[in-house]
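Worked example 4.2. Below are the chains of a multi-component assembly; read each line carefully before continuing.
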Amino acid sequence: MINQTHNNSSCCGTDTSDCCTITDTVKRPQNYRAPVDVYETDTDFRVVADMPGACSEQIEISIEDNTLTIDASVRERYAAVGTVRHREYGVGDFHRSFRIGDGIDADGITAAYTDGVLSVSLPKAEATKPRKIDIKTA
Amino acid sequence: MNTRTILAPATTAMDSLRHEIDRAFDRMTTPALASAWPTTRLLDAIRLHPAVNMIENDDSLVFEAELPGVLTDDLNVTVADNMLTIYGTRTLHTPEGSTALRRERSTKQFERVMRLPSGTDANGIDAVLADGILTITLPKLEGTRTRRVEVRGL
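Applying the procedure described above to all two chains together yields the following structure tokens:
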């Protein structure tokens, strides 16, 4: 549904067989709320979210009923490394949802994921773009 | 106090007193006091101290920090005297001619200093930045066993 462009990251390089396959049979209960910046230009809205360590192949962006939802799966990455001795932050899936209005062209949404940051561009529907209105003088 | 406590209606005298004190504190945070909180400009100057996780295996210690949007050019990792310092700047790429409707990712500069434990080889340190995650691998020294010291009698 969404056109996604992404660089080859360490997680999902050319071989996506084992790296990005979520093999956990038990879904981790923790969902993290990714911090987000929202910008508005004349032509679109941009949503920029911090989601380090997400599998770019498994980021889902959807619009339903005026709600934009972003879900990103994050693979568990410590078990293969060793025993966690000191934990200051948790690793888990990211989730964020927004209420949005009707002025979005849902078919034109694009997204890119680089360096742990997801940028989503939501183009405004034609009718909602700012128009200069000419004032006629009689 | 247990956070799952269900708030019960104030039925005792102590509850009423506690309620009154809470309301007195609420009244103290007037708009005048609220303006004393740091403005956004000041918050930008505050350095973020990124959270670090540490994982251990037989060969090394691995430090991991989440630094989304940071490029290797903006990141510095230095080791001196067994102190590991991670510092740098994150550039937020604000789109041209845009207005910000929401800003949650506002911090630009970050810094974190950690003492490396003994028994590790700071010369063999390795740092990788990928997908917004910085992974620093610190090898353990070979044979850091306790040595018995011979005590001489004079």
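Take a moment to check your reading of the output against the notes. The CA atoms of residues 45 and 77 of chain A lie 33 Å apart. The two ends of chain A are 49 Å apart (CA to CA).
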